[in-house]
């Protein structure tokens, strides 16, 4: 697999709680399969996006189909992060359905990721099918402190497979966990699958994503792997809202909300893997 480091991305993020603003991460829409503007397919796509945007529920997941003939049918879904509120989910999906047609105006196969949600659609049915491609990796550019023993950090990362099991067996295919590394330093992790996957497929997807972490994010303070069917993230700060998480992993400790929400600047490196080299986009990540 060819690996391309695309760019450094500085984002302002709330360290503890999600907000209603949708933070764009990345999108992929190959131009190998396109549709004609103002066609029946585009009409069906518009109807699908409207349906998805108007069906944000407490479960944070919804899939739908639009079209009557095989050549013009569109399949789509959205997945919101399991710890966000219905309001945040609705806002993120609304943003995604609005922006995706600007970023991918004629492409039939699309995946777009935001910090709080993911939107995917295609001219081929993909419901209940585990997918690991295309894949995107993001990492925190800060290295783990030398005070943390390397083997201990590796052991904690390896324990993410336990969170994968918890997520796969939960009704919402979502789990979080806080694990103490040393002293006052803890590792916070979040794992999630699309809710149409079986427990076995969800677990497999998450384990595969976890296996990417040593390669993409070795000795980094944070990292995440995004697949169309699942995603994994860890940080050394509480980035998720445990008070509204749908299905926390067994043994996870509730996080005490801070006295005030602090904004911090987190520098990330975005990586993406393909079977061939792609062009590197501009520094603003807009297409």
TrEMBL record:
Keywords for the protein's UniProt record, in alphabetical order: Repeat, Signal
Every Gnk2-homologous domain range: 23-126, 132-239
Keyword field contains Signal: yes
InterPro entries, alphabetized: GNK2, GNK2_sf
Membrane-crossing residue ranges in chain numbering: none
Signal peptide start and end residues: 1-22
PANTHER family found in the cross-reference section: CYSTEINE-RICH RECEPTOR-LIKE PROTEIN KINASE 9-RELATED, CYSTEINE-RICH REPEAT SECRETORY PROTEIN
Protein name: Putative Gnk2-like domain-containing protein
Organism of provenance: Rosa chinensis
């Amino acid at each position: 697999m060819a690996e391309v480091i695309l760019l450094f991305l500085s984002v302002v993020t709330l360290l503890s709680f999600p907000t209603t603003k949708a933070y764009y991460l990345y999108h992929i829409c190959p131009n190998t399969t396109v549709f004609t503007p103002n066609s029946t397919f585009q009409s069906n796509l518009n109807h699908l996006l409207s349906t998805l945007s108007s069906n944000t529920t407490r479960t944070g997941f919804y899939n739908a189909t639009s079209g009557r003939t095989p050549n013009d049918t569109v399949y789509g879904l959205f997945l919101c992060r399991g710890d966000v509120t219905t309001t945040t989910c609705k806002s993120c999906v609304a943003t995604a359905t609005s922006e995706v047609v600007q970023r991918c105006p004629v492409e039939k196969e699309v995946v777009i990721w935001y910090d709080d949600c993911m939107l995917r659609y295609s001219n081929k049915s993909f419901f209940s099918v585990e997918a690991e491609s295309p894949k995107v990796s993001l990492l925190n550019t800060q290295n783990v402190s030398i005070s943390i023993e390397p083997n201990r950090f590796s052991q904690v990362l390896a324990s993410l497979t336990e969170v994968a099991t918890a997520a796969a067996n939960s009704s919402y295919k979502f789990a979080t966990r806080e694990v103490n590394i040393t002293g006052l330093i803890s590792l916070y992790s979040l794992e999630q699958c699309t809710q149409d996957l079986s427990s076995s497929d969800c677990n497999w997807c998450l384990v595969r994503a976890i296996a990417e972490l040593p390669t993409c994010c070795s000795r980094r303070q944070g990292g995440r792997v995004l697949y169309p069917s699942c995603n994994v993230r860890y940080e050394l700060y509480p980035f998720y809202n445990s008070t509204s998480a749908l299905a926390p992993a067994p043994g996870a400790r509730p996080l005490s909300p801070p006295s005030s929400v602090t904004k911090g600047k987190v520098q990330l490196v975005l990586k993406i893997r393909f079977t061939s080299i792609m062009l590197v986009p501009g520094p603003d990540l807009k297409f």
